[in-house]
Amino acid sequence: MRSARETVETAQEPRERGTEDRAARYKRTFLAYLSLTKPRVVELLLVVTAPTMILATGGLPDLWLVIATLIGGALSAGSAGAFNCYLDRDIDRLMNRTQGRPLVTGELTDRQALVFAWVLGAISIAWLWLFTNWVAAALSLGAILLYVVFYTMILKRRTAQNIVWGGVAGCMPVLIGWAAVTGDLSWPPFILFLIIFLWTPPHYWPLSMKYRDDYQAAGVPMLAVVRGRAQVGLQVILYAWATVACSLLLIPIAGMGIVYTVVATASGAWFIFETHRLYNLTIRHEHVSPMRVFHGSIAYLTLVFVAVGVDPLLPF
User: Fold this and answer.
1) Residue 206 has pLDDT above 80, yes or no
2) Digit-coded pLDDT (tens) for 230-265
3) Cα separation of 81 and 49, whole Å?
4) Burial bucket for residue 54 (CB in 10 Å: 0-12, 13-18, 19+)
5) Model pLDDT, residue 133
6) Cβ distance 136 to 69 under 8 Å?
7) Rounded Cα–Cα distance for residues 230 and 48 (Å)
8) pLDDT band at residue 7, thresholds of 50, 70 and 90?
9) What does the pLDDT look like over 102-149, one tens digit per residue?
10) Angle between helix 134-145 and helix 168-182 axes, rounded to 10 deg
C-alpha cells in the first residue's frame, strides 16, 4: 500500500513533465523565430555599424545612441532575413544547406513568419525614427526594401550578378550608423559603403562554389552555377583587389591614421593572397577549399572595421 507522500509525488510527475514540455516548446519556438532573422548576418552587420559611428563622431559617441542604433539595425536586418526566409521557402526545401530552416522543418507556419517579418520591420523603422532620426529610419526602410524586393524577389532567381547588386542592402548599416550620429551623409560613409559593396562578391562567391550543387538543384543562377570554377576564382580576385584599393581611399578622405593604414594594408594583402591561392588551385584542378576564402573575408572585414573604430580614438 502506497504512502500519502508517494501518492502526491506520483500525481506531481505529469505536471512536472508538462511544464518541462511547455518550456521545451517555447524554447524551440523562440529559436525558430531567431533563426528567421539570420543571426550571423545580423552580427556581421552590427560589427560595421558601431565603428562607423565612432568615425562619424571623431571619438566615442553617446552610448545610448549606439545601443539604440544597434537595436534598430538588428531589428531591420532581422526583418529582411525573415522576409527572405518566407519568399525563398520553396527553394530552401530543395537545398541541403537550408534544410534546417523553420519553414522547411515546419516549426513555424508561413503566416507566422510573414507576420513576424512585417512586425519586426515596422518596429525597427519606428524605433530608429524615435531614438535616432528620420534619416536613419528612412535608410533602414530602404535597406529592407533593397534586400527583400530588389535582391530576393527580382535578382536572385534571374541573374548571376544577383549577389553583386543585391549586396547593396548589406552596405546600408554604415549609412544608417553615420546618419544616426550626424543626421546627414558625406563622403566617408560612402567609401565604407563601397568597401562592403565590393567585398560582398569575393565573400559570397566562394560559398556558392561550395554549395554549387544546392543552387543548381534549386535553379538559382549563382555565378558558380553558370560559370566554371576558374572564372569564379578570377572574379573573386578582381573584386578583392577593388575592395582593398577602396579601403585605402578612406585614408585621405577621412584622415585615417597609422593604425588604420597598417591594418587595412596588411589585412588587405593577406585577403588578396588568399584569393590568388584559390584561383591558382582551381586552374591547376587541385583540391579547392573555397570556405577558407569565405571565412577569411569575414576576418578581413572585421579587422578593417575594428581599425575604423579604433583609429579615431588614438592621438596619432
Assistant:
1) yes
2) 899 999 999 999 999 999 999 999 999 999 999 999
3) 18
4) buried
5) 95
6) yes
7) 31
8) low
9) 999 999 999 999 999 999 999 999 999 999 999 999 999 999 999 999
10) 180
Residues with Cβ within 8 Å of 95's Cβ and at least 6 positions away in sequence, in order, are 211, 214, 215, 217, 218
- Dihedral of alpha carbons 41, 43, 47, 50, sign: positive
**198-208 burial code (b ≥16 CB/10 A, e <16):** bbbbbbbbbbb
Alpha carbon 152 to chain centroid, angstroms = 14
Residues in contact with 248: Cβ distance below 8 Å, sequence separation at least 6, in sequence order: 261, 264, 265, 268
Question: Strand, helix or coil at 184?
Answer: coil
Q: C-alpha cell of 220? A: 538559382
Q: Give me the amino acid identity at 308.
A: V
Residue ranges of alpha helices (H) inside the chain are 4-36, 39-57, 63-87, 89-92, 102-105, 110-131, 134-145, 162-166, 168-182, 187-210, 212-218, 223-226, 229-254, 258-283, 290-310
DSSP codes of every residue in 222-255? -HHHHS-HHHHHHHHHHHHHHHHHHHHHHHHHHT
Are 283 and 230 a contacting pair, CB within 8 Å? yes
- Reading the block at residue 236, the C-alpha cell is 573573386
Quote the pTM value.
0.89
- Domains of the chain plus CATH, in order, are 36-182 (1.10.357.140), 186-315 (1.20.120.1780)
d(CA 257, CA 91): 46
> Angle at the Cα of 171 (from 31 to 82), degrees rounded to 5?
25
Phi, psi of 198 (to 5 degrees): -75, -25
